[in-house]
Amino acid sequence: xxxxxxxxxxxxxxxxxxKNNLPKKNSPSLLYTYLAIKLILLRSWPNYLNYSSxxxxxxxxWRPNNSPKLMDLLDDTVPGIGTYEDxxxxxxxxxxxxxxxxxxxxxxxxxxxxxxxxxxISDAFSGWLLMLLIGLMSGALAGGIDIAAHWMTDLKExxxxxxxxxxxxxxxxxxxxxxxxxxxxxxQWKSWAELMVGVSEGPGLYVVNYFMxxxxxxxxxxxxxxxxxxxxxxxxxxxxxxxxxxxxxxxxRGYLGKWTLIIKTITLVLAVSSGLSLGKExxxxxxxxxxxxxxxxxxxxxxxxxxxxxxxxxxxSAVGVSVAFGAPIGGVLFSLxxxxxxxxxxxxxxxxxxxxxxxxxxxxxxxxxxxRLVLFYVEFHTPWHxxxxxxxxxxxxxxxxxxxxxxxxxxxxxxxxxxxxxxxxPVLEVVVVTLLTALLAFPIEYTKMSSSELISExxxxxxxxxxxxxxxxxxxxxxxSGSVNATAAxxxxxxxxxxxxxxxxxxxxxxxxLKMVFTVVTFGMxxxxxxxxxxxxxxxxxxxxxxxxxxxxxxxxxxxxxFRGWCSPGADCITPGLYAMVGAAACLxxxxxxxxxxxxxMFELTGGLEYIVPLMAAAMTSKWVADALGRExxxxxxxxxxxxxxxxxxxxxxxxxLATDVMRPRRGDPPVSVLTESGMTVExxxxxxxxxxxxGFPVVISQQSPRxxxxxxxxxxxxxxxxxxxxxxxxxxxxxxxxxECDPPMSPSAPPAVKLRSILDLSPFTVTVHTAMExxxxxxxxxxxxxxxxxxxxxxxxxxxKKDILKHMAQMANRDPDSILFN
Length: 823
Fold this sequence. Notes:
The protein is mainly alpha-helical. The protein has 29 helices and 13 strands. It has a three-stranded mixed beta sheet. Helix 28 links the parallel strand 11 and strand 12. It is elongated, with a radius of gyration of 32 Å. The two termini are 40 Å apart. The N terminus is likely disordered. Keywords: CBS domain, Chloride, Endosome, Ion transport, Membrane, Signal, Transmembrane, Transmembrane helix, Transport. It is a multi-pass membrane protein. GO terms for molecular function: voltage-gated chloride channel activity.
């Protein structure tokens, strides 16, 4: 599409032939051709804006004398004005105002010509086109990541002789020599021991496979951390804390760039395949946001407006969860509940559309080979009983306790990594943790398999053909089988635990402890690491253990009143897989503090629509318990650990302080640095800029009469002065700076003035010294302000920035105010 538009523009230029056959000066065809070229280049070539002024000079000679400048949408102020520096907060009010002005201009000009009307229609359609592209790109990347991670995970155990690109399951699909009891064994799949030393049984087989498993894990983890360190340091971690901060208006250059996308995609596959206790779901949100940010550069209204771009990133967050879990509705709710800072109704519709496209794309790729979006799809056939709400609530309590413990332990470990020499050796840390994980995981069946496969097996309801140890029951008649034995001719009956189930129980208990420990130390390392799947795995193990206990209790005491009616002939008493699903939701909710979106994600993830009530009970209990032990989710805790300037909307400000207690300058400090609307020279302003690091300056009438006039941003001021020195004739160090509307009287010999009223914000937000800080905090949260000026009777007294508020809140909470690192 880009090359089509570009070459079509070149074709039009050729038709003009402005070297050999210039059209007449008043030719209207030239005007429309010129306009068409500009519109085409606007859509196809983002850098064209940098050259717009040159084109205007070329064509200005041929514009009719009596013709107005027709819909010159590309004329702009000085390049760079209105942009932001790295690690700064955007001005939401100004960005929304710019977008309203742009809409108003397009609407007015659309009534003047057909071309302008077409431009207006294309501008309105561009948002939906962008959502379509984000959904397609994110869905394709997610499908590739799923397929590659599944293949590389199986590569640690062996290789397929029919083709090395087949994973274990696909390799054995076409085999006619597999059985239900050993469905994972086929002649086409060879373990590394069989290939290297030719042994198919005995201790040699175990030792060689153990060694190769550890070697592959170390190789994958080492490659992941090396690629992250060398090419894209921002590709490590989950990405959701930074995404939340960016959506609140903070600028982190490069965090959503193309190198971050490429390296995160590659290293995510490597990290998941290494067997570390991490998942790919959180990083997929980061990947989707990278796709959105890159695609935004092809659409002018999103590239040049940071607030509009954040609406797109909110939709991309929904896309990330949609492709991670196959849950488009849950993804939209996740973006609304958990990560978005500004989420208008228009963004809700577009998020839903983008999530739908992404889910459709992933379904078309079919990465799991089961014609479904997810690996965990289950179907339970036994209804739950009302009294089972008690163990479901117990799982919620466990999830809340796990969430509070995990957050405190992980933050303590990350703080230790940050403040000690441990943080200086990220490669060594990743290698050591991977080595310990692989050495301890291989001997246990439930830690050796990937977390996704473990959750799938724990969710599964035992059937007649299941050969898993979790289905190792003994019937009442005393016969033992690896599968479930029927006690009624028309279905499954009561099941007593057999030796296989007891073995599975103690292995699951050991796997639970290892998962908890390794998840604490893994999250936050310098590799892509998600938290959803490890948290769900912890909850699923705990839930399955409790479910089996409840099942055996109901079977052995079925004659008691409390269990009467639970174990009817021809049906299961209790479904342990349901307990695993509820436990997974509870632990994930305890860590992330999600509620509504979590329940929707879980029933989309598993297809268990009739089990919403148990999920809701567990999710709410988990949140209540976790909130009682600590108000922050894991993402908010990492935001505070990293010192990002994020004002959490859920946190209440209860202190009775006033604006005068927070504003700068404080007592004993020098007065606030200001500009005057007239009377200052270029040299004085440049000296003030060089001597300070402030992001902006208030403009007052004069030093003697500090009546507030407006506010000017530092970046806009610097760019305007550089542009004036470069392009405006006669500008010297002694040239006066004017923010006034009318020029004051000046002597003929005076150097020309630099007029900067166009970059002056004439309506900055102000409060008085007696305004309660509770109101000031609400203003900053709901309007997304960067700064607020403090006045009294029109006189400027001080300024309050977002950083000042965060420091004040940290001080009121007995935390270190210097932990707020960024401006």
